[in-house]
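Record type: monomer structure entry
Structure origin: computed from sequence
Chain ID: A
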Amino acid sequence: MLSHFLSSPSRSPTTPLPQYSSYLPPASAAFSSPSMAALGGIFAELKTSDYTSMFLEALSALSEEKKFVIRKLGFGSILQFSCCNNIQEIFMWLVSLFDIYTSTVTLEDGFSFTLSSHFMQMILGFPSGSKHVCTTASKEASEFIEIILNKESPTVQHLCSLLTQELDEDVFKVIFMLLMVTVFIDPNGSGIANPSYYPNFKDISSIQHLDWCSFTLDCLLKSIKKYLFRKSQDIKSEIGGCKIVLVVLIYFLSSR
């Protein structure tokens, strides 16, 4: 259970969350397990970026056969999401309470929760294999992607347009994973796929053996820490990372 990752010796189950109760799902919302499979309904009022919306709309248009391929890859939970609004405000509130040294969010009443790869796995349900996700670009991998896509720097728009076309299954998997990383796991403002992650897709059969949960956590933590450092220097910046992971905790906090 997610409560295993949430610790508070004193918080009352009825203690309201400061000013955010209006954004939370009703207490009667169906949520039988701590997985992303239920988040589509629970967070139907959370905001996604334009790129995320574009990706989710493309996924909703896929055939059942292609959706089955995504589930086989271990990322089927993404299919449960729908476009929504207000995620940024709640996310930024949580970031303001974030301790960069312990990766812990502590609320004003002392209640706290700490992000971990195990927590990521329970929320997202992504593969958490024994191998690390590669984050170093290579000429060979870049050439591989360019040959498949016939494009050197694929954008989210271009990848989404390819997603619904008739494709070889392995090519479809590569395009889907490029979108997952670019839009959902480690989003960037440019909307262009990061070549640093291309090596992971050369052998698409290895995807399920990679630790995507730890990678998602690392991307989120690095993004938050970078933002908070720049803020301390009065430098404006955007936060990337998988924001929904942090925001989803609001549901559990409100239902304890």
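Annotation 1: The longest strand covers residues 104-106.
Annotation 2: The longest helix spans residues 212-232.
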